[in-house]
Amino acid sequence: MFDSLKERLESIFSGLRGRGKLTEEDVQQALREIRRALLEADVNYKVVKDLVEKIRVRAVGADVLESIMPARQVSAVVYEEIARIMGEGSRGIDISPQPPTLVMMVGLQGGGKTTSSAKLAKKLSKSHKPMLVACDLRRPAAVDQLRVLAGQAGVAFFGPEASETDVVALSQRALAYAASHLIDVLVFDTAGRLAVDEEMMAELDRMKAALDPHEILLVVDAMSGQEALNVAEAFNNRLGVTGVVLSKLDGDARGGAALAVLAATGVPVKFAGVGEGLDAIEQFDPRRMAERIMGMGDMAGLVEKIKETATETDIRQMAQSFKKQRFTMDDLLAQFAQVEKMGPLDKVMEMLPGAVASKMKDLPPEALDDKRLLRMKAIIQSMTKAERRDPAIIKGSRRRRIAEGSGTTVQMVNQLLKQFEQMSELWKRFGKMGKKRSLLGGLGGMFRR
Predict the structure, then answer these.
(1) Is 111 annotated as a binding residue?
(2) Domain boundaries, the chain
(3) How far apart are CA 75 and CA 17, in angstroms?
(4) Residue 108 annotated as binding?
(5) Any binding-site annotation on 129?
(6) Annotation-wise, does 107 bind a ligand?
(7) Fewer Cβ in 10 A, N or C end of the chain?
């Protein structure tokens, strides 16, 4: 996400750092480049004009131009202003003190509304008991899709009876069911259209009047660019939207909608879809998103992912290995499994700071291929228990057998064993220091050829 904009900004600030002391003309030239980069990222031109002007006022002041590191000061100003236009702080679901909390998901057909509803319900299931309610009664396929997604997400589902056409009556029955089954959050997946029309809006009006929902979340396709703002304005003017869910943000290299939706409509972005899996939804944090755009990475998000995927068993096994100062192939296999649970490697690398990420870009494409991780796991799984405990016994004939058993090559087995030796030394060193090695830091070398 934001790849194009991030690369352009990195290039602009690299040029500023190369100049040392900056003049007002240097900053004005950089601002022209920033304006062009934002417009190419499909950010609304009015938002761009306002943003660049605020940056200009702050960046050409004496306290910036006469500072010891003016280029860094200008970069900090741009970061703060980008974060500002996206909102003040992260905002999640407004949970009602008197359950159930009612969430209406609205949006156009094809924007990812049904999938986003399931993702949100799964995210909420960590601390609540949500239920998905299928309210698109014109498309039976939408009801079936939501039923399947609810099963995959492990949350409750409530759908229409045969030939039911009254969405308000369906909603009332869902409320009664929730009250008798201790459901404390209801997510209503409403009907969509290919475009905003009166019939759809009238139905949503009736639902809003009957339910008085705590949240009305508009799902918009981040890849639709400027059109996302038009859709947001139309729904907000009619329904009073409380928040936006940006779907498919991972597929949009420009990201203009994310930058401009709050500034253009006054509606905050609350969640962002960052992948296809049901876990691939994040609570939108303007500052963390601005850090990604500026090439600072998202280390807080990365730590959260590690915490979410690490089980008590994983932590206990790692602690025992550090205590013994002994690293085995089973330990390495466990770490591979944890990295795999964190999602695609290229998405994980997006969360690393620019300096680290740029080094990772120098690796061959296959080094960040998830299939490579699967092949390395297969190599370890083809070893005997004795070989996993003591890889030093793996000589020529054993290496050929392991390669054949894992469907790889002897060369790949050799590469894994060599990298294992290096990581084993690191493990011992950090064990003696009484510190735990960072998961990704330790695995970084494992993906080098």
Answers:
(1) yes
(2) 3-86, 101-294, 302-447
(3) 10
(4) yes
(5) no
(6) yes
(7) C
Q: What is the pLDDT of residues 60-118, one digit of tens each?
A: 876 666 666 777 888 888 888 888 888 877 788 989 999 999 999 999 888 899 999 99
The verdict on whether residue 248 carries a ligand-binding annotation is yes
What's the rounded Cα separation, in Å, for the pair 129 and 314? Answer: 27
Q: Is 247 annotated as a binding residue?
A: yes
112 among the known binding-site residues? yes
pTM score:
0.67
Residue 191 is assigned to a ligand binding site:
yes
Which residues of the chain register pLDDT less than 70? Answer: 1-2, 20, 62-68, 251-255, 296-326, 340-370, 426-449
192 in a labelled binding site: yes
190 in a labelled binding site: yes
* pLDDT tens figures, 337-364: 777 666 665 565 555 555 444 444 444 4
389 is in an annotated binding site: no
**154 known member of a binding site:** no
- Strand segments, DSSP code E, in 227-380 are 243-247, 269-273, 281-283
Whether the CB-CB separation of 281 and 116 falls below 8 Å is answered with: yes
**What is the CATH class of 3-86?**
mainly alpha
What does the pLDDT read at residue 138? 83
Burial 8-27 (b: 16+ CB within 10 A, else e): bbeebbeebeeeeebeeebb
328: annotated binding-site residue? no
Q: Is 15 annotated to bind ligand?
A: no
Q: How many Cα atoms occupy the beta-carbon half-sphere of 311 within 13 Å?
A: 8
Q: What is the pLDDT of residue 211?
A: 94
Q: In what order do the strands lie in the sheet with 185-190?
A: 156-158, 130-135, 185-190, 101-107, 215-221, 243-247, 269-273, 281-283
- Same topology for domains 3-86 and 101-294, yes or no? no
SS3 140: helix
Instruction: Encode pLDDT of 279-323 as tens digits.
Output: 889 888 888 888 877 776 555 555 555 556 556 666 666 666 655
295 is in an annotated binding site: no
Domain 302-447 classification at class level: mainly alpha
Say if strands 156-158 and 101-107 run parallel, antiparallel, or are unpaired. unpaired
To the question of whether residue 331 is assigned a binding role by annotation, the answer is no
Indicate the class that CATH gives domain 101-294. alpha beta
